């Protein structure tokens, strides 16, 4: 595998930080959306080096940091998820593939953002890959009310403590890398992000039955951050004929950083390759 090329800056016109990693001979493009608390560039050296592996096979990778994440401006993680969906749609419109296929990849919260972006507008997308998507928000009703109230009056107030980093991966080196990464937000979940996640997730479930875009979904059965049954329910609900779900036994939240990463990467790359023929 060749070293990852330095990304070019990419301006989608909404104020978020954007990047593009170019391949030597592009056959397709992919828009990558990171998860809660993290940032796009993490997919260069982690997640089984997903970005350089994609560019190696001729796929240009575009990505944005959500507001309040990574190198985008804003209070850390005080993100309106509805705005994140709008930014994602703007990013999709900003990509000129020259007639080549466009794929979308979203992990965790980025999976929710990607899914609702597509649910709102399915055009121009050759396929969607969702990694441990946060499609089903499971929270007590009292916490939902608190999130909605505080999201309006105190959007940065922390409403949920983070889980131990060991719940992300069974590989100690990946856990240590997460804990030592200064660009990752590891505080309590801000009320604005929690409240807007609930609203956007609910919107998704009202729309998914109209979904026709090819989709591949990965989820670990030991994921305590997002609900595997949400991924199964999503695949069961959508009307697409081309839909696949992979439930990885004992897999934790960051499957491409976990013990099953080679299996996941192989399936992901093969799935894309078959749709480029």
Number of helices: 9
- Beta-strand share of residues: 15-25%
Supply Rg: 17 Å
CATH homology group? Alpha/Beta hydrolase fold, catalytic domain
pLDDT averaged over residues: 95
Helix content: 25-40%
Compressed to H and E, one letter per element, the order equals EEEHHEHEHEHEHEHEHEH
Number of domains as seen in the coordinates: 1
With strands numbered from the N-terminus, the spatial order across the biggest sheet is 1-2-4-3-5-6-9-10
Description:
- This protein has helices at 42-45, 50-56, 81-94, 109-120, 141-153, 172-179, 191-207, 228-237, 261-274, and strands at 8-9, 18-21, 28-33, 59-64, 102-107, 127-131, 158-160, 189-190, 215-220, 243-248.
- The chain is globular and about 50 Å long.
- The protein has one domain (8-274): Alpha/Beta hydrolase fold, catalytic domain (Rossmann fold, 3-Layer(aba) Sandwich), CATH 3.40.50.
- The mean pLDDT is 95.
- The chain is 36% helix and 17% strand.
- With 277 residues, it is α/β, with parallel strands linked by helices.
- It has an 8-stranded mixed β-sheet with strand order 1-2-4-3-5-6-9-10, with helices on both faces.
């Amino acid at each position: 595998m060749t070293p990852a090329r330095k990304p070019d800056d990419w301006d989608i016109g909404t104020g978020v930080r954007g990047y593009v990693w170019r391949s030597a001979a592009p056959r397709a493009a992919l828009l990558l959306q990171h998860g809660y608390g993290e940032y796009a560039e993490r997919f260069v050296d982690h997640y089984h080096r997903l970005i350089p592996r994609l560019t190696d096979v001729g796929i240009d990778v575009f990505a944005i940091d959500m507001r309040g994440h990574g190198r985008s401006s804003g209070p850390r993680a005080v993100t309106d998820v509805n705005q994140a969906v709008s930014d994602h749609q703007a990013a999709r419109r900003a990509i000129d593939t020259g007639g080549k296929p466009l794929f979308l990849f979203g992990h965790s919260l980025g999976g929710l953002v990607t899914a609702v972006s597509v649910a709102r507008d399915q055009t121009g997308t050759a396929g969607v890959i969702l990694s441990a998507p946060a499609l089903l928000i499971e929270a007590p009703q009292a916490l939902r009310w608190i999130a909605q109230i505080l999201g309006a009056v105190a959007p940065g107030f922390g409403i949920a403590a983070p889980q131990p980093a060991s719940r992300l991966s069974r590989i100690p080196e990946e856990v240590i890398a997460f804990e030592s990464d200064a660009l990752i937000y590891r505080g309590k979940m801000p009320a604005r992000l929690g409240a807007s996640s609930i609203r956007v997730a609910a919107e998704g479930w009202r729309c998914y039955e109209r979904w026709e875009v090819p989709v591949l979904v990965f989820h670990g059965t030991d994921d305590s951050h997002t609900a595997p049954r949400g991924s199964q329910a999503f695949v069961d609900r959508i009307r697409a004929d081309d839909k696949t779900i992979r439930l990885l036994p004992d897999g934790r939240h960051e499957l491409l950083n976990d013990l099953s990463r080679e299996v996941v990467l192989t399936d992901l790359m093969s799935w894309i390759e078959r749709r480029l023929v």
